[in-house]
């Protein structure tokens, strides 16, 4: 039977039985079975069907499209190199705009223009386009089919049971955010964050870029306040099993003709928000981001820079391991938090009146999510299981080594992570931990372009040889912090679907698919596989390796950061993979000291050292950067003028002489206290006095005091 005839027969049988979920024993066959109708999943199904395969798309919930149709309506592709995000992603957006034009409405954007304009759409339009594309491709889509078990013969999946039905296929694609099929098939995976040493990632481990809030995180009995997750910071460089916060993307409106009030939360307890109340009293702003959409609507999102927002910090840690009922409980807990937080924002006297009034004008949209009480059915699972396959994408692949021999996509979203934990500190204060503020090219505000190799979506062959994983793909936490975007998942899903269809033709292992054959079909389906000119390595023309430098060298990757810091590679050369900066363009407000970079080390021997600093000099830099060096009983303070250039041909500029004690911890702190302009931290260097004789005398005003 030809694939086309097989698909017609299969579709007819499945449509006839689509309402028979309650009956047991239904069995179906297909060339390709995709489990999970996320953006990566539905694009995999469409791509495989367009290659002539008979395709079944299974979705464990009753909602197709996950976040793309579930409220994430402010497309973040403006932070990507759009000319590389083509194929089904580009077609999907073109059809979204056509949907508006066909109804005589203004086009919300022009997908043919690959600039950094904002692309926005309404959820119901996204759903209509997604359903149309699936139907036109001949994909049989079945919802409410949670995975029950997987049947394997050696490394090969023979069938899976989803709902009450059995599905046999030649090749399977795991399109879930959680990697559920991958895990059930016995493929290696991980969860949470790696330690910094595991893959040599400066952004791994625990991250503290946000300012500490000067509030007490404990109640009168010494117990943690609600919404504070721990009082144990743990080692900064260590990994853990925490994931970035989950939330809903709310489709909201102020239009009284289309506004439906948010439901009242069950069991609202104002005491749950005591730590938020204390933060407000300390001057910490609270709320969530709002992005304008067509139709007079707004997309409400968790604020990555906020201290308290729509994200339930710590609430998603157990999502991956929960069964269907357990996930429903976690989903409900996030909805409960969302409704309670909204109630707090709009009614609590601690919230400033203008903030209360602003949010009180908002409601849900009557013309969205009608079957769900107008509340989004999709929880934003930003991160879950990650496969450990043939190749693991890490920070170096994004920033240092972007080219691969077997690319299936070009990804370019910035590395960024929302909060993972909220700590009550033993010495006082509360701090959110785990945020990675966007790592991107400075002027364009796009991320760095890099190849995603085919090996990253393929398991180890001895574990499974007919499964591809384009969403929960093989990467680190830092890697997924860049990969975790719908645009990337859509093109990865498309590539996985093409690969699955090609492999199904021969019944060979997915790992044995000849890359030239795959590449040919990817290009035929409109994929872009060449890195753009803007993808020059951030360190290609000017990275200085730490190990090549004399003395004690502390890269910015060794610093514990508090407050708001960004990362950049714009100025070269720099030490390591880049540098960090604090400050905002044109901001003349003196720094409050909340942004600090702290280094800790032990000198191998006591003595006099020359203290040097590497930074990118520029007129926009601060001229009075405070730096303190504390070693044993010795404390010295400096003010560094970062508008002053480094010596010709040099990587460091002399700050002054310091006395370091041997065998004790030395602490160096750089802060933004009373600074105006950018504070730059690239690297610090300590040279024994006899190695530093050739260094120039520090300028007047920068001697230790």
Describe what this molecule looks like in 3D:
The chain is of the alpha+beta class and 705 residues long. It is 22% helix and 23% strand. It is built from 14 helices and 36 strands. The strands form eleven sheets. Strands 1, 2, 5, 6, 7, 8 and 22 form a seven-stranded mixed beta sheet that branches. Strands 11-14-10-13-12 form a five-stranded antiparallel beta sheet, with no helix packed on it. Strands 25-29-34-31-32 form a five-stranded antiparallel beta sheet, with no helix packed on it. Helix 2 (39-50) packs parallel to helix 13 (486-506) and helix 9 crosses helix 10.
Classify the helix fraction into a percent range. Answer: 10-25%
Oligomeric state, counting identical vs distinct chains: single chain
**Structural class by helix and strand composition:** alpha+beta
Spans where pLDDT lies below 50 across 5 or more residues: 1-22, 535-541, 692-705
By DSSP, the count of extended strands is: 36
Task: Give the secondary structure arrangement, pairings included.
Elements: H1 3-17, E1 27-35, H2 39-50, E2 55-58, H3 66-69, E3 74-75, H4 87-102, E4 119-120, H5 123-137, E5 140-142, E6 147-153, E7 156-162, E8 165-174, H6 180-184, E9 189-190, H7 196-199, E10 250-253, E11 259-260, H8 274-281, E12 289-293, E13 297-301, H9 324-347, H10 353-360, E14 363-365, E15 386-387, H11 395-399, E16 407-411, E17 415-417, E18 421-424, E19 430-433, E20 436-439, E21 450-453, E22 467-468, H12 477-483, H13 486-506, H14 515-524, E23 543-544, E24 552-555, E25 560-562, E26 566-568, E27 574-575, E28 579-582, E29 596-602, E30 607-614, E31 625-631, E32 634-640, E33 653-660, E34 665-671, E35 679-681, E36 683-688
Parallel strand pairs: 1-2, 1-8, 2-5, 8-22, 23-27
Antiparallel strand pairs: 3-4, 6-7, 7-8, 9-15, 10-13, 10-14, 11-14, 12-13, 16-21, 17-20, 18-19, 24-36, 25-29, 26-28, 28-35, 29-34, 30-33, 30-36, 31-32, 31-34
Helix pairs in contact: 2-5, 2-13, 4-5, 9-10
């Amino acid at each position: 039977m030809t694939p086309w005839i097989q698909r017609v027969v299969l579709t007819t049988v499945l449509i006839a039985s689509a309402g028979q979920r309650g009956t047991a024993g239904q069995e179906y066959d297909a060339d390709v079975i995709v489990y999970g109708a996320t953006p990566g999943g539905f694009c995999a199904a469409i791509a495989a069907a367009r290659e002539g395969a008979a395709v079944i798309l299974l979705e464990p919930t009753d909602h197709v499209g996950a976040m793309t149709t579930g409220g994430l309506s402010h497309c973040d592709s403006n932070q990507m190199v759009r000319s590389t995000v083509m194929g089904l992603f580009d077609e999907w957006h073109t059809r979204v705009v056509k949907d508006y034009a066909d109804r005589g409405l203004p086009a919300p954007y022009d997908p043919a223009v690959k600039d950094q304009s904002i692309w926005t759409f309404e959820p119901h339009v996204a759903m209509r386009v997604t359903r149309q594309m699936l139907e036109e491709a001949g994909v049989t889509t079945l919802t409410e089919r949670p995975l029950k078990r997987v049947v394997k013969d050696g490394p090969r999946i023979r069938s899976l049971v989803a709902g009450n039905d059995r599905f046999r296929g030649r090749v399977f694609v795991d399109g879930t955010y959680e990697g559920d099929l991958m895990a059930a098939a016995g493929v290696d995976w991980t969860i949470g964050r790696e330690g910094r040493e595991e893959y040599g990632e400066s952004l791994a481990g625990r991250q503290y870029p946000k300012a500490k809030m000067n509030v007490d995180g404990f109640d009168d009995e010494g117990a943690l306040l609600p919404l504070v997750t721990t009082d144990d910071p743990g080692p900064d460089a260590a990994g853990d099993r925490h994931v970035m916060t989950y939330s809903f993307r709310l489709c909201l409106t102020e239009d009284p003709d289309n506004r439906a009030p948010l439901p009242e939360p069950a069991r609202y307890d104002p005491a749950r928000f005591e730590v938020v109340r204390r933060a407000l009293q300390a001057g910490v702003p609270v709320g969530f981001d709002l992005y304008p959409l067509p139709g007079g609507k707004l997309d409400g999102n968790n604020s990555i820079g906020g201290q308290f927002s729509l994200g339930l910090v710590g609430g998603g840690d157990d999502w991956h391991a929960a069964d269907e009922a357990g996930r429903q409980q976690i989903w409900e807990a996030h909805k409960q938090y969302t409704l309670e937080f909204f109630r707090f924002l709009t009614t609590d006297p601690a919230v400033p009146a203008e903030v209360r009034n602003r949010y009180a004008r908002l409601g849900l949209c009557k013309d969205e999510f009608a079957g769900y009480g107008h509340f989004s059915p999709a929880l934003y699972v930003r991160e879950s299981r990650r496969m450990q396959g043939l190749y693991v994408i890490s920070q170096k692949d994004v920033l240092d080594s972007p080219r691969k021999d077997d690319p299936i996509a070009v990804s370019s979203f910035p590395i960024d992570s929302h909060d993972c934990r909220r700590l009550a500190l033993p010495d006082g204060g509360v701090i959110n931990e785990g945020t990675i503020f966007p790592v991107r090219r400075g002027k364009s505000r796009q991320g760095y372009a890099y190849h995603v190799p085919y090996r990253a979506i393929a398991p180890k062959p001895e574990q499974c040889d007919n499964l591809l994983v384009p969403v929960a793909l093989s990467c680190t936490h830092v890697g997924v912090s860049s990969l975790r975007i719908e645009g990337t998942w859509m093109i990865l899903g498309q590539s996985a679907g093409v690969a699955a269809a090609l492999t199904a033709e021969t019944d060979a292992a997915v790992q044995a698919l000849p890359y030239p054959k795959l590449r040919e079909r990817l290009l035929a389906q409109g994929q872009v596989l060449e890195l753009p000119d803007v993808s020059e390595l951030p360190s290609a023309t000017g990275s200085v390796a730490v190990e090549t430098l004399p003395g004690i060298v502390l890269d910015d990757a060794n610093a514990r950061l508090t407050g708001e810091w960004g990362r950049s590679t714009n100025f070269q050369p720099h030490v390591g993979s880049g540098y960090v900066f604090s400050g905002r363009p044109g901001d003349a407000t003196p720094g409050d000291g909340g942004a600090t970079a702290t280094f800790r080390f032990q000198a191998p021997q006591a003595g006099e050292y020359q203290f040097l600093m590497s930074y990118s000099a520029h007129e926009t830099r601060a001229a009075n950067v405070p730096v303190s060096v504390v070693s044993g009983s010795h404390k010295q303070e400096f003010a560094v003028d970062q508008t002053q250039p480094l010596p010709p041909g040099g990587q460091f500029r002399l700050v002054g002489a310091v006395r370091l004690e041997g065998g004790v911890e030395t602490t160096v702190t750089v802060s933004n206290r009373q600074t105006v302009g950018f504070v730059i931290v690239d690297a610090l260097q300590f040279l024994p006095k006899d190695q530093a004789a050739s260094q120039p005398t520090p300028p007047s005003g920068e001697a230790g005091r």
